[in-house]
Sequence to fold (150 residues):
Amino acid sequence: MSKWTDHVEWRRLYEGEWCPICDSTRLVGTPLGTIVEMDTGYLTTRRDQPVRGYCCLVLKRHAAELHDLEEDEAGGSMKDMRRVGPVLKNVTGAVKMNLEIHGNTIPHPHVHFFPRYARDRFEGGLWPPEMPANELEEFAARLRTVLAEG
Fold:
């Protein structure tokens, strides 16, 4: 998250000017580690995997947020995710397939696929500290209000 403190670097990443995914695509035609091209993105992997079978589905074009995608692009991306998930689960023999979307390091839409196995190193889960009850209520109320507005 240190990239957020350098506003110039973050803006260049966010807008795609310094995006490593876009740079790789410009240089070699696809993001690094590409396994296969899909309708809206590229399925990638790498040797240093956090769990066996880890993959990442990278959107073909640069956007900073999922809500920046066009409707057909967002739908196509979900279709690609739904296609990869069961295939990857089957190929790896995983008992569960976890997906994560962040973008805080590279603000270019990409979905991490984490096949999960019995007794893997993350079996117990990762939970942050609890939010105070009053803060949770204020947060939930604000979300309900803004979502109801539009």
